[in-house]
Amino acid sequence: MTPSPTTDRPAPTLTTRRPPSGTAVLDPVPLCAALADATRWEILAVLGDRDASASELAEELPISRQAIAKHLQQLAAVGLVEPVRVGRAIRYRALGARLGQLARHLETIGRGWDARLSRLKDVAETLHRG
Q: What residues does 84 pair with on adjacent strands?
């Protein structure tokens, strides 16, 4: 740890927690990057209701089929959609499991923050009482 400029205590450093052996680790960064686009959210909303081809999606959304195809590639690369060949056509389906993993990951982070804020509140109340 390096000393913090405002105190004599060392500044915290980022650490990576190792999961138990055999446990898959969710890397939320690629998922969040893929979800950082409004069009991809629209695509996922449609695919959440039904499977669709890139052409069908292009008919519903205000962008070209080529742009839809690029968005679908990005979503497939992080496991949010899956291409399925049906005859000569390629249809896409949403894979809710990855979104569920991300939601659980964010919930864990949220619970940690809630606990920290609760402890801070307790300390503040104790100091206020005297």
A: 91
